Amino acid sequence: MNMDNVNDNACLERIYALSADALSKRQMPVLPDVSALAFCRACLFESIPDHGIGVEETTNHLCLDVAPVLNASGLSPNYYGFVTGGITPAARVAESLVSLYDQTPQVHLPNETIASNVEDRALSLLLDLLNFDRRKWSGVFTTGATASNVVGLACGREFIINQRLKACMGPESQGSLGSLGLLKACRMAQIDEINIYTTMAHSSLYKASSIVGLGRSCVHDVRRSGSGFGFDLEDLERRMESGQHNSVSIVVVSCGEVNTGLFATYGRRDLLNLRSLCDKYGAWLHVDGAFGIFAKLLDSVAGFERVAQGAEGVDLADSITGDAHKLLNVPYDCGFFFCRHPDLAQQVFQNPNAAYLDTKTAPTDTIRSPLNIGIENSRRFRGLPVYATLVAYGRDGYRDMLHRQSRFARAVAAYLYEHDAFELLPKNVFKYRERIDQNIFIIVLFKAKDDGLNEQLVQRINASSKIYVSGTVWDGSPASRIAVANWQVEPHRDLEIVKGVVEEVIKTWAKGK
């Protein structure tokens, strides 16, 4: 086949028409029909065709066989699973350009493309949105939570081991972890153990700790008993002090616990206490911001002061991660990483013996090729949708979006709290009704009081295909989680949909007993 002669305009127009049709159905089913899934799986090619079926037939295959059985995670405002945001119209427009031009923003090519400049500016706009001082931070885009935490732990590992190397070998020592390797550097620095101290860490932190060679068993939960997710500062200092001669530490703050949306810290004083301990014992302070970092946008919104405090003071950390494909509502995959030690990231991630990749052409050009400060050498142009959506909606637009999402989450929580059939979780946090309006951000965790119904609750809710919730486990029992992250949320409309589904589940369960 001569691909140069293929006219794909008609195929593209068909895809655009399908997209427009899907976008017009805001109340479309959130899950495909189960029987349709089974049928369409049989339509997928099991082996590569010798001659290919052509663009037109492939378009038919995609439109008729694949698209109808994709879920509506990004399209529907009623998909509440996995903190999955949608895609704002501005981000969708930018995403089409990402595929069309297929840039390589990892290499800074200032005389050939504007791509790396756009990404640099997108990171600056993100810092603006979060009210961080742009002069103090450098950043890079990642795939999301796991990659961001890998970068954070790698930088933290470099920092704490290099400090100990200098202490053991003298301040003029030229050795570093990045050049020596983990085993040799630890031996020279007389380090037997590296510990990560946190509270209710996301699973990606354990995965990241394994990837960077620290091990999942090095992650220790140091929660204060009966306090939710707050740090036990006395226990933390005791651990750091007892191991200061042969171990080093990284402290990780969960800025938004995945099951409940609650925070590990509330207010700048909490971060100051952690910062003081980290400085005292030479530890690295990392914030896993995921979705919670965006609570900073609610600092001036009445009634959301407590939630905003959950992200207050995070600028005191050494590094911060966040997921743009959650509450920023840009396409998967897109995370971000910010660091207050820009040279450190280059020690870890630089491409040695690759002078051709260092392409600055003017002394005033301060942009570093992202491939020297992050994991990937090759990736898609993630920053363009971020740039587009921030410019399109601005601070006020995103504050309004988050306000709607939080109001809806609180309305759902209040409905479940007052319902005889359900229990809002964690029970010790939501003992009183007023705590809903203090603590609920975008996540609602709950269970049915009837154990039999609770075992089937997630499955029965999702079977409606009107809303989708995630299943999890809390205190050893099944629990259901609603995570509100789509930009299209309308509190009153969507609350009625949730109520309708839940009441129908209760009704059918009672009939079947």
How are the SSEs placed, and which strands pair?
Layout: H1 9-24, H2 34-41, H3 54-66, E1 79-80, H4 89-101, H5 115-129, E2 138-142, H6 145-169, H7 177-180, H8 182-188, E3 193-198, H9 203-211, E4 219-221, H10 233-242, E5 247-254, H11 268-281, E6 284-288, H12 305-309, E7 319-323, E8 335-339, H13 342-349, H14 383-418, E9 422-425, H15 436-439, E10 443-448, H16 451-463, E11 468-474, E12 477-483, H17 491-512
In short:
This protein is α/β, with parallel strands linked by helices.
Q: What labels would you give this structure?
A:
five-stranded mixed β-sheet, Aspartate Aminotransferase, domain 1, seven-stranded mixed β-sheet, alpha/beta, about 525 residues, Aspartate Aminotransferase, domain 2
How does this model look, in words?
InterPro entries: Aromatic_deC, PyrdxlP-dep_de-COase, PyrdxlP-dep_Trfase, PyrdxlP-dep_Trfase_major, PyrdxlP-dep_Trfase_small. The protein has 513 residues and is an alpha/beta fold. The chain has three domains: 7-70; 142-354, Type I PLP-dependent aspartate aminotransferase-like (Major domain) (Aspartate Aminotransferase, domain 2, 3-Layer(aba) Sandwich); 395-512, Aspartate Aminotransferase, domain 1 (Alpha-Beta Complex), CATH 3.90.1150.170. The chain has helices spanning 9-24, 34-41, 54-66, 89-101, 115-129, 145-169, 177-180, 182-188, 203-211, 233-242, 268-281, 305-309, 342-349, 383-418, 436-439, 451-463, 491-512; strands at 79-80, 138-142, 193-198, 219-221, 247-254, 284-288, 319-323, 335-339, 422-425, 443-448, 468-474, 477-483. The strands form two sheets. It has a seven-stranded mixed beta sheet with strand order 2-8-7-6-5-3-4, with helices on both faces. It has a five-stranded mixed beta sheet with strand order 1-11-12-10-9. Helix 6 (145-169) crosses helix 9 and helix 16 (451-463) crosses helix 17 (491-512). The mean pLDDT is 92.
